[in-house]
Amino acid sequence: MFAIDSTTLDVAGSAERFPVRRVYCVGRNYADHAREMGTDPDREPPFYFTKPADAVFTVADGYAGGPAHEVPYPPQTENLHHEIELVVALSSGGSDIDAGSALDHVWGYGVGVDLTRRDLQDAAKQNRRPWDLSKGFDASGPVSALVPAASVDPLSGRIWITVDDELRQVGDLGDQIWPVADVIAHLSRSVTLAPGDLIMTGTPAGVGPITRGQQVRGGIDGIGELSFVVR
């Protein structure tokens, strides 16, 4: 027999922990990012991929006085990319959820970075193969501490990321093609959502490479920030 440790995320200002069940990610949910990836956002419904639950972990903001968190540079790539995202944490779920009540299922929100082995993803796409390992590798989902939903407006807020203090991505949650309520409703038609599920809701334009030794910092106004060094 062997033990399996469950993944949990920090809750801001509390000793409480949020247990993670599954991690769903929305692809190309900002029009400007869809265009930079070569697709037409006006013709595409949302689509999803997943990360293993233990790929996500809490990263504090080292700029706020704590030590800089180190995130390992993954193997099998020389083109690691950052993608800053709003993370949605569910306290309840179900199937065929109505968009009008979808936000009632949200426990809270966080800031996440979808780390991507872009060279592996590009090669998989060219060969029409699955690109799971370009997204779902170890430590591929650093996330800030979560904050309760009552304090957050998921329809607006500046979202941004810097690398070595250079602004790389900046946008607004209001720019999402599919806002949080619509994503929850749409996803629940395909899978039964449950407490502990996370949804990473897509990234604005400006995704790009990060290399060993660089400092990454990102945030969403009204939710929080995170920072880490790539080692």
UniProtKB/TrEMBL annotation:
Residues 23-230 form the Fumarylacetoacetase-like C-terminal domain. It comes from Mycolicibacterium bacteremicum. One of its GO terms (molecular function) is acetylpyruvate hydrolase activity. InterPro entries: Fumarylacetoacetase-like_C, Fumarylacetoacetase_C_sf. This is Fumarylacetoacetate hydrolase. The keyword Metal-binding applies. Coiled coil: none annotated. SUPFAM superfamilies: FAH (SSF56529). Keywords: Hydrolase, Metal-binding. Pfam families: FAA_hydrolase.
